[in-house]
Amino acid sequence: MLPRLTLLVGLALAASPVLSQDYIDLEAERKAAASAEVSQPAPVTPSEPAAPVAAAPVSASPAEQQSGQNLGELMYQLQLLQQEVMNLRGQVEEQGHQLRQLKQQSLERYLDLDKRLGAGAVATSPDASKVVAATAVAAKPSVTEIPGETEAYKAAYGLVRSQRFDDAIAAFDTFLQSYPDGRYAANAHYWLGELYLVITPQDLEASRQAFTLLLREYPDNSKVPDALYKLGKVYFLKGNSAKSREYLERVIAEFGDSDSSAVKLAKDFLAENF
Amino acid sequence: MKQLLFTMLAFLLLVAQARAELVIEITSGRDNPTAIAVVPFAWSGFGAAPEDVADVIQGDLMRSGQFAPVSNNDMLNLPTREDEVFYRDWRTTNTEYLLIGRVSGEATVTVEYELFDVFRQTRIIAASESGPVAELRMLAHRVSDKVYQQLTGIRGAFATRILYVAVNREGGEDVYRLMVADADGVRDKEVTRSTQPILSPSWAPDGKRIAYVSFETTRPAIYMHNLVTGEKQQLTNFKGLNGAPAWSPDGNSMAMVLSKDGSPDLYLLDLASRQFRRLTRHFAIETEPSWMPDGLSLVFTSDRGGKPQIYRLDIATGDTERMTYEGSWNARASIAADGRTMVMVHRADGNFHIAVQDLERDQLSILTSTALDESPSVAPNGSMVLYATKRNGRGILAAVSVDGGVRFRLPSREGDVREPAWSPYLD
């Protein structure tokens, strides 16, 4: 009742004294109910000539008054219920909103991470090609872009963005078949590892294989610290604490000096779970 | 000479009287406003010029906060045609743009104007506006619109009007006047008056008809008023609340709040058939409808979630979606013509401020720092928000740009002013 009244006072600023009509109506109905109970006894009295005139309304009143009170009580209960429903509705709306925000935030974290890792890959590749050129060896296919590769990778990645995780897994699988030595192959393995963790049900073994493959095939890739950290997590989820710890400690030991975010994540994970 | 002086004096007095209602005080502008010189326009008609066109344009550009008009005293010469323009003179005073012009005619006047880019030494506009001499100020505002559009890329909204309610105490009772004035507060005219409250003025999209709520029959009722013919019609007379009329963008219907069936709900009145259609059915309060520019949905205030918040209603499907989550009190929303900027009254720390929400990015920013701000109304070009607030215990109008950078106040000389409504484009 109180918040509603406050609202009325507030809204009155904008649109008027009449907003309180809501309540006046209820009051009026209560009054109408009360006046109905006064007028009703009238037809009863003439049929009982023996009863004193004054006695009829007096004898009728308590019962009628009782029902009037009940009606008032009912109206009051109804108002309480309405207020309760409104408050609950407000809470549901707000929680729904918070959930949507959280989902959005976690998606953005993924996107941010991939952007940073992608940028790392791009930054290292010119160095690699320099080395290749200096040693006068033919450029390796892994650092040159194959036509259509970027588009295919972006399309698969777009599915991650729109949270179509199952489709994204299929797309990255196809991508790896078409461009097994492409410059984004390591990224694709990494995303497969991530995706097997977010689908329902999780496929821990598939995820483990994707990350392990990344470590074996691309030991110098910029995604290695993240893959190590993720493997630590996957082993933890699989119940293998020893292996989990081993991988997490490897992140810190091998990349502790770098500014990789995986180091902090690994430290946090160790602190929380071990 | 004496004759001329007298005419001028009489004219000045008239102007002073006409401007008695609202006065503009600019409180904040942009950091690097563009320096523009608006040279006094030549007048080739009979007697004294009916309006100082250059002064009106200077005022408009100044109020936008994006321009710093060069003072007449700093002008080295006062050209009125292109062959009198020497760019060097303007470069030395760091003037970026130069506007010159000429006014001619009698009953019908023509304002010719030319805009120059001083640094590129080129003329960028040469155009004219004509109309009846009584509308000379409006012609000047139209010149401001064109200059503003050329230099900012945004259509100007100076040649528009505002509605507001002025309340004065006369002979021991409050007198409510519904006023219409140019967007700069000048040329105010009374539309109607009553000793009972007048509320919620709203413009039809044609800029000719308005709707408002009046208690003149001691009960609230919605009226429609044609500003051109003066014709007035009562649209509703229901028991309880009749309020918050909002004209649909196509002008064919009006959303409003009625409580005839219980608690306040939104209704849609078809103006041709006079049929009412109920849009919401809820035991909570639904009020303050405002249209999305596409006319397919409405935003409104409801306390169905326990606290007043803004919701959007899809008129065809009846789907309702909550739009505001920040703060425990959001009301009186209105949507700018771009369909993505929503202004509203937002309560923060117990104070009522004007806030703007970017509907695409879902970001809320508070625009005002005064305490009791209400009734925001957006200019048709979405640049400024006009609202009512309290200053020194009196109701005044104030304006703030949608990015919060530019502010000015339009206090009245006496009494209170409130409930402003900015017109759509008038041409």
Task: Characterize the structure shown.
The complex is a heterodimer of chains A (274) and B (427). Chain A is mostly helical and 274 residues long. Chain A folds into 2 domains: 1-44 and 51-136, no CATH class; 137-273, Tetratricopeptide repeat domain (Serine Threonine Protein Phosphatase 5, Tetratricopeptide repeat, Alpha Horseshoe), CATH 1.25.40.10. Chain A has 10 helices and no strands. In chain A, helix 2 runs antiparallel to helix 3 (55-134), helix 8 (224-237) packs antiparallel against helix 9 (241-255) and helix 9 (241-255) packs antiparallel against helix 10 (261-273). The model of chain A is unreliable at 1-58 and 126-143 (pLDDT under 50). Chain B folds into 2 domains: 22-152, Rossmann fold, CATH 3.40.50; 161-422, 6 Propeller (Neuraminidase), CATH 2.120.10. Chain B contains 4 helices and 31 strands. In chain B, strands 2, 3, 4, 5, 6 and 7 form a 6-stranded mixed sheet that branches. Chain B starts with a helix and ends in a 5-residue tail after the last strand. The A-B interface holds A 3-4, 7-8, 10-11, 13-16, 18-19, 21-22, 25, 82-83, 86-87, 89-90, 93-94, 97 and B 197, 199-200, 213, 220, 240-244, 257, 259, 262-264, 283-285, 287-288, 301, 303-309, 322, 325, 329, 331-332, 345, 347, 352, 372, 374-375.
